[in-house]
Amino acid sequence: MGRYQTIMSSVLLSFLLLSAGCANMFSKSSSKPSGGSSVKISGTLQHGTGKIAATTAVADSICAMPIVKGQEAGDWVSLPGAVINPLTGTFSIELQDSIDGAPAEWVLLLLNSKATSNYDKLVGFLSVNEINQSLITFPLSKSKTDSISVGTVTQNGDEEQSDTSIKLDTAVFDLTLSQLAEMAHTGTTLKVMKNELANYDPTGVNKMEIRTTYNLCYERLSAAMNHELTPLEYFDTSKFGYSMQVFPQSNPQFDFTQISSGAQTFEMYPPAPTYLENVVGAHVYTALINPCYSTDTSGNPIIQHDTSGGMSHAVALLGGDSKGLSSIIYSEFKGLSPEGTWLFTKNKNQTQPIRQFDLSLGLPIDTATGKPNIYIPSVNIAVNTADTTITSITIKWYYWDKASNGYLPAADAGILDNNISDLEVTIKSTAADTVFNFGTSSSTQQAVPLTAALNPASGKFKYVLPAVNQKFTVDVLYTSYYQRFDVMLQDIGGLTSF
Asked: pLDDT above 90 covers what percent of the chain?
């Protein structure tokens, strides 16, 4: 992804390096990247002389992360930032309305410079609450002014919300109320940014990434054959599952040979009782993780894996070879992640976790309503019934609108493009051993369109009901704000129902 760096004082570099005894990690001002126009955002935290709510009592600084095409467009050690006046709670930060020529949205983060771990440094998010929803992104490319005052902000959970007596909607941004509501509803998952910071290593030596993929849909392919399968038809949180994939990159703590032999293990400890789920045909089997999900298979829960009663231990999948480890996949988690801190450890040492992270931050589902906080696709697979050729696959995007209590089609291509960074559609047949891939990528700056009509090679892909135990699959994968989402349509030979 494209990144930019501002020239900051040495105080800023200490963002990830300060000891607990240091004062503030940002200088009071920062130089601005060239190009674009600047907008100043100012306000006051509701405290002064230390009288501040408990969860934000440690917030002494503020920084801003730019978001372009659904991804970070800045480096953690060179973000624009400012200190918060410890006596008055006032702050002021100046930001650009574009990054490298691309319209930018900004997320403003409240920080504790004295925290000893990256995970604890990010303590809150500045937000606007003018549209009966919370907007944590500031669309400065649409700003009508070069100065925005959020007034005295008040705490609401992990947010510090702007003064609602100050109109910060259409009076400030060149966007309609419906556009702002769409941005607010589909932007809350950005809070998972806390985990990005927790996994960041400024030296690069211990760099690693943990990516979550949510399974949003698993339906028969026929459900979308010559029919637009809409979110209203398939979106059901009771059927959800997720997996976590660890990418160690060049981290020296991971040794593929040692992990394969069992001499070295890596564990996921959930924050609360968590279940694995295995779906075999029309059967669903579950198993409790107690206490962890390990690369040491013998310590994992036993889960049924076929309808004849066969059972085995859940397996954390290793990718790589003797030359190195590419990833570890912990799969088949049931439902949604519980609230709280996950621990990723080595050799079952919970007291010294390698990483900590919270999947309930930026959760793609509103647990109170069961409705999505993200864009959800519909899928229509056009099949020529005369010769069974797949002629096109059409993807359209929807979001849940609280006001109308229903799904609305995404209407603003710019907002969608700055939310979803890539889209991949795959057709795969085990019988024919053929694969068709369509993809967009932020690296090529391809936009994810409001409607994607994909045309496989003429006559190449024909749908034929698979033979017993063979599969025909259409898979829709997309990435939004650090998280992956999967909509899978599949027919399995010999299976009459899911």
From this structure: 47
Model confidence over 19-47: pLDDT tens digits?
Answer: 222 233 433 334 344 456 899 999 998 76
DSSP state of 272: S
Both tokens of 1, joined, read 């992804």
d(CA 74, CA 264): 35
Contact 230, 398 (CB under 8 A): yes
**264 and 252 Cβ atoms separated by less than 8 Å:** no
- Nearest in space to 15 (alpha carbons), one of 94, 75, 105, 97: 75
- The whole model's pTM is what? 0.86
For tokens 């009771």, the residue is 238
Q: Return d(Cα 487, Cα 264) in angstroms, integer.
A: 35
Residue 363 has pLDDT above 80, yes or no: yes
CA distance 474 to 435: 10
Interval 208-265: pLDDT, tens: 889 999 999 989 998 999 999 999 999 998 888 999 999 998 888 999 999 999 999 9
Q: Please, are residues 286 and 262 in contact by the beta-carbon 8 Å criterion?
A: no
**pLDDT of residue 145 exceeding 90:** yes
- DSSP state, residue 334: E
Q: Which stretches of 178-272 are assigned E, i.e. beta strand?
A: 209-219, 241-247, 266-269
The Cα–Cα gap between 417 and 160 comes to 27
Contact 110, 56 (CB under 8 A): yes
Q: Which two tokens stand for residue 41?
A: 């955002």
Least Cα distance to 23 among 113, 140, 96, 119 occurs for 113
Q: What is the pLDDT of residues 293-306, one digit of tens each?
A: 999 999 899 998 88
d(CA 86, CA 255): 46
Other residues' Cβ atoms within 10 Å of the Cβ of residue 43: 24
The DSSP bridge pattern shows strands 355-357 and 365-366 to be unpaired
3-state class (DSSP) for residue 141: helix
Q: Tell me: the pLDDT tens digits for 265-323? A: 999 999 999 999 988 777 889 999 999 999 999 989 999 888 888 899 999 999 988 78
Please tell me the distance from the alpha carbon of residue 115 to that of residue 169, in angstroms, as a whole number: 34
Q: Are 167 and 177 in contact (CB under 8 A)?
A: no
Residues in contact with 210: Cβ distance below 8 Å, sequence separation at least 6, in sequence order? 195, 199, 244, 245, 246, 247, 344, 355, 357
